[in-house]
Every structure is written in C-alpha cells, then in structure tokens.
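User: Please write out a complete single-protein record containing the residue sequence and its fold in token form, without commentary.

AI:
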Amino acid sequence: MKILFICNSVEGTLKQRVIMPAKYLHAEVAHEINIMTLQAKIMINIFGTMKATIRDMNYYDIIILQFAWHDDLVFLIGRLNKIGIKVVLDFDDDYFHKNPYYPIDYSRGRMDNLIKSISMADMITVTTESLAETYSKYNANVKILPNMVDISEFKPRANNGKVVGWYSSGIRFAEFRSMVEGWIPENVCLYLTGSLIFNNFKHKNKIVIDRFNPVDTPKILANIDIGLIPLKLCRFNDGKSDLKGLEYGAMNIPFIVSPTEPYKKLIRHGINGFLVKHSRDWLKYIKLLIFDDKLRANMGKEARKVSESRDIKLNINLWEEAYK
C-alpha cells in the first residue's frame, strides 16, 4: 500500500494520529508512507531525511485526511473519489456534541461541509466507541483505532510524591479550573504546562510552563509525581480518548481522573488509578497518593502495564488491517 497522510494540525493529534502510525506502518510493514502538511504545502519524508518527496496524489492508494470541513478539502475528496483513490477521514473529537468549556465553530457552512466530507469518504477512523456511534450516523464504514503511546519514548524515574501536575492547551483551562480549583492542598507543588494562562489558577505553590512541543511530553511528565485529568461529564468528553492517562502511566505516574466512558474502561479504581465521583475526591486522592508511598509506587507500576499494552508498535496491525 502507498499511503499519504494530509494533516492541518501541529498539535498533539499530529503525533498521535499521523506521525506515530506512519512511522510504524513504514518500519513494520514496509509500506511507502508520506506526510503532507497543509501549512507548508510540501510532502516531507519523516523517515531519516528532511528531503521533500513530491508526487502526484494519484500515485497513492489511500489518502488520509483530518478536519475535513474546509471547502478545498471537500473538493479534494470529490476529485479523489472520481479517480478511484480511497479516502479515509480521521477524527479524535466529537464535532456533533458540545462541551461548554471547549469552543468549536459550529457555523452552518462548516458543519454542512463536515457532513458532506464524512459521507463522501470510503472510511472513517476514530479513537473511541462514542465517536464511532456519532460518525456512523453519516457513514456506515467506521473503524476504531484507539490512541496509542510509543512506550520506547518514556523512561520512568523515581517518584517522591511531591508534585501534582496537569498538562494541556490553554483551551482546556476553564474546564480544569472549574473542577479542581480549591481542591489541591496549598502545601503541594502544582506543575501546570501548556499555556501562560495557567498563571490565573489560584494556588500559591505552582509552577507554570508555556506551550511545548508534543514530542517533549515525556520530558514534561518527568517533573510530575501525581497526574490530574479533570473532565466535565458530557457526551463530548466521552468521545475524548484516554491518551493522557496512557502517557501518565507510561511514566509510572499514578493519576486521578473524571469517570468519562474511556476512563471507566481504562481504570481499575484503586489499582491503576482513581476515578473521581465527587469534587472532594480530588483532595482525598491527592492526599492519599502523597502520603502512601507504597500505594503510589504500586499504582504507577500498574498504570505502566496498561500503557505497555497500548504500545503503538504492538498494535500497528490495527491500522494495517483497517487500511487493507
């Protein structure tokens, strides 16, 4: 198979949904893979050289697109349909259900384009069961390709339980603050990474780091002993994957998380993480993990085991089977 990924995001989805599967499809299955970024308008060979590889699109068997709500991408899908090239649309967010803390452009033209592109695609790939249910209303051929981690990138280190942390983009800050502000002990160091807007969080003993490249996630996590994943319970967040938990786990970091559907499946409560039922549980479980060294260590090890089972190298066959 000859596959071209076309992406228009330089955020976390670029790594998880494009670079990692492309890398291991190429390495393990010996397919010819290229990545085209819409910003640069150039196809970049990411496998050991920065030399551009320019080919006509009709060279490829499959073209994989993200965020296909632009007029030009809808036009492109139509052209690819006509010349017999298979089109895959990949989604890791639910654009048909709202989260009041997560602003998305739901304008009529944009949503019409989204529905049109979904219906025109040969296959839709998503990260969760909730997303599969949403997108199957517009295209019957939906495959779940869960987010994975490249476990080789994560090197666990000693965990002394002194730093509680959270990392995200600034767009998630209002949601984070609404759920945990006031529930983190003041004598605990809070490590926040992803935007300087996090300085507005009310906590005296905090460290705030600006945006970072997703490839540096393991370095960021090396500063955290206890991870937080606060999410409003809503259909939109049921579509969000368990990736952050997998990344914490890959570093042997025990974490506390809201019980969205993906995390209820990932977590064995008290074994490889804690599920929060009430706001006061954030404080309860943070204190428990800080003071119980054995629990913190064991929970981190159990979280690591789950992350190891979701190593991209061990699961790349899911991508190959879907594309075949």
